[in-house]
Write a structure and sequence with these properties.
Its EC number is 3.5.1.28. One of its GO terms (molecular function) is N-acetylmuramoyl-L-alanine amidase activity. It comes from Lachnobacterium bovis. The chain is built from six helices and eight strands, in the order H-E-E-E-H-E-E-E-H-E-H-H-H-E. It folds into two domains: 1-43; 49-221, Lysozyme-like, CATH 3.40.80. It is an alpha/beta fold and 224 residues long. The protein is 44% helix and 12% strand. The radius of gyration is 26 Å and the shape is elongated. 32% of the residues are buried.
Length: 224
């Protein structure tokens, strides 16, 4: 009787151990499968091409100061934010000088990494490894591009538009982003900026499509 009881206990223990092992295996498979499923359906449409050559950029950095260039590290870039200057007829360098002058006027905190002018010139104000004061809660993880405008419609002229497309396309590749990561200031705060792209959503979609087409046409294949 004693031997029989021990044998039954042993068989019960062995069966329980097998059951626990089977349940553990099923759980592991479910976790791994769920993770792979999540990655598959949440994968960004990262372009398989990048723009290798940087567009012509005039580097005229702001003086380090608390109002426009605080020199806070930008540790991770998760997006490119498009803005407009809202002061028609002014040049890229004029807007750069305005940002630089905030250290003296102390009126507000404002700046941008890049400003694209009416002649298509690109002025860099802040190194990409530092934050700018442009995109509110997204200052910490985005690169900002201010765009000059000719009139109150806020529409970019052809030269400005062309340079913004080229600059944005280059930045998308540089930071391994997708065109889904190109956003408006409006998308962060609801501010009407850039005005024309907020008031004309189809023009905004066309802009992102133009960036993608520029990458497809002029980009080079990324390493596997």
């Amino acid at each position: 009787m004693f031997i029989k009881d021990n044998r039954e206990r042993f068989l019960e223990y062995r069966n329980n151990k097998k059951l626990i092992g089977l349940v553990t295996l099923v759980l592991v498979i479910l976790v791994i499968g769920g993770f792979l499923f999540f990655k598959m359906f949440n994968k960004k449409n990262i372009p398989d091409k990048v723009i290798g050559d940087r567009p012509p950029i005039q580097v005229v950095l702001l003086n380090p100061n608390p109002y426009s260039r605080p020199q806070i590290p930008l540790k991770k870039v998760n997006g490119i934010v498009i803005h407009y200057t809202a002061n028609p007829g002014t040049s890229a360098i004029k807007n750069r000088d305005y940002f630089n002058g905030l250290q003296y006027s102390k009126k507000t905190k404002a700046s941008s990494h890049f400003i694209v002018g009416l002649e298509g010139e690109i002025v860099q104000c802040i190194p990409c490894k530092e934050i700018s004061y442009a995109s509110n809660s997204r200052n910490k993880d985005t690169i900002s591009i201010e765009c000059c405008i000719e009139d109150n419609t806020g529409k970019f002229n052809k030269k400005t538009y062309k340079s913004v497309v080229q600059l944005t396309a280059w930045l998308v590749g540089r930071y391994k982003l997708s065109c889904e990561d190109i956003i408006r200031h409006y998308d962060i705060t609801g501010k009407i900026c850039p005005k024309y792209f907020v008031e004309h959503p189809k023009a905004w979609e066309k802009f992102k499509n133009d960036v993608q087409e520029y990458i497809d046409k002029n980009g080079v294949k990324t390493a596997e």
